[in-house]
Write a structure and sequence with these properties.
Blueprint: E1 10-14, H1 22-32, E2 36-40, H2 43-48, H3 51-58, H4 70-84, E3 88-93, H5 99-102, H6 112-135, E4 139-149, H7 163-185, E5 188-194, H8 208-218, H9 226-237, E6 248-251, H10 262-271, H11 278-281
Parallel strand pairs: 1-2, 1-3, 3-4, 4-5, 5-6
Bound molecules: nicotinamide-adenine-dinucleotide.
Length: 282
């Protein structure tokens, strides 16, 4: 169902690779809600993914960019403003990558070149986007910038590796830049801490199947999927959330406030051959 929440608004969406991507769902929902926007991803993602199809469907354009390159980011903002006819109202940073995860280097045996890349691609790129946007004065007053994070920024989750450090940095950048951008231009900067989601990046985590089962059992509302995350992004881009800034907001079905749930305990009870009833488990 569409509510016209973004009618007349324009934006830039970074990170749509294929139809599983969170950014893909955000683009589809933003289109349904009346927004016009430009899409960006790396040249290789454009070649090997399906972003061109998405652009066609949404009346958008694709501006290739490596999010670690300031020059590329400057080009994305200036070409987007040219295409959209002026400043934008929202920006989505939906970018993450760890070569250590890809190459199966564990956290106590990191390759430090890879580690720098993880931080640059997954976190520092967010600062670069904000700094470029600010210098080019590319975002309208009361605009909204959102990046996607994960609870491994606060709590240790087995196998999330150096992406945990990247997410901590990402969330810190949202707070620090959010203060300056809010003070000077009334622009909101937030991160959404999303449930584990089966996307290309998500499935790179070694234990994703088990992790998703665990978090689903632990969350009273169950895991949030990519479309639900997109819906939440739309509300943060809309005018209905104008006083929310510098926040990391959990979109995780309640997982972040749980310690142990009945459904998770049932799994342990099984392995200890305990025939506890539901009442005893509560
Ligand atoms: N999938 C999950 O479980 C989950 C949970 C919480 C947060 N997130 C975050 O959501 C965001 C989107 O990930 P996703 O799950 O939709 O997976 P995805 O693989 O669809 O998206 C990741 C995107 O990052 C892009 N990217 C990688 N390197 C880049 C670079 N140098 N320059 C520009 N773009 C680059 C990829 O091309 C891809 O489009 C990421 O920040 C991810 O960490 C994902």
């Amino acid at each position: 169902m569409a509510y016209n929440l973004l009618k007349g608004k324009t934006g830039i969406i970074f990170g749509a690779l294929d139809e599983k991507s969170i950014a893909w769902k955000v683009a589809e929902r933003a289109h349904e809600e009346g927004a016009r926007f430009a899409l960006s991803n790396t040249l290789s993602a454009q070649r090997f993914g399906q972003i061109d199809e998405l652009a066609e469907k949404c009346g958008s354009i694709v501006i290739p960019a490596d999010a670690t390159s300031i020059k590329d980011i400057e080009e994305v903002f200036s070409k987007s403003m040219e295409f959209l006819g002026g400043k934008v109202d929202f920006v989505l940073h939906s970018i993450g990558m760890s070569m250590n995860v890809r190459k199966k280097r564990v956290y106590n045996d990191l390759d430090y070149n890879f580690f720098h890349k993880t931080l640059d691609i997954s976190a520092v790129s967010f600062h670069k986007m904000l700094q470029v946007a600010n210098k080019l004065d590319a975002i309208n007053d009361w605009g909204s910038v959102v990046a996607l994070s994960y609870i491994a920024a606060q709590r240790t989750l087995y196998a999330y590796n150096d992406m945990a450090d990247a997410k901590s940095l990402l969330e810190s950048i949202a707070r620090s830049f959010g203060y300056i951008y809010g003070r000077e231009k009334k622009i909101r900067v937030n991160t959404i801490s999303q449930s584990p989601t089966m996307t290309t990046a998500g499935s790179g985590v070694r234990v994703m199947g088990g992790l998703m089962d665990f978090t689903d059992r632990m969350s009273p509302l169950g895991n949030a999927d990519a479309l639900e995350c997109a819906n939440f992004c739309i509300t943060l881009f809309s005018d209905l959330t104008r006083k929310i800034t510098m926040q990391n907001i959990y979109h995780d079905g309640g997982f972040s406030n749980m310690g142990m749930s009945q459904k998770a305990m049932a799994m342990y009870n099984k392995s200890f051959n305990c025939d506890c009833t539901d009442e005893e488990d509560e």
